[in-house]
Amino acid sequence: MGLLLRLLKKPIKWILKLLLHVLFGYVYLFLFNFIGAWFGVSLDVNWITAVVSGVFGIPGVLVLLVLKYIL
What we know:
Elements: H1 2-36, H2 47-70
Helix pairs in contact: 1-2
């Protein structure tokens, strides 16, 4: 049992860290949409955009915004 916990400790830690970043990504997107509503700018809030904004932060949100208006 102890060996199994040691083997799974890092992957579980990485998954929890990714989920935390995704949660922050959702917060970034909601804040961006709230502030962007004043300027007529918004982004979709879904799993992929949350991962991008959570992992890459503000630059990720800016890239999503550029991609939305280019594509």
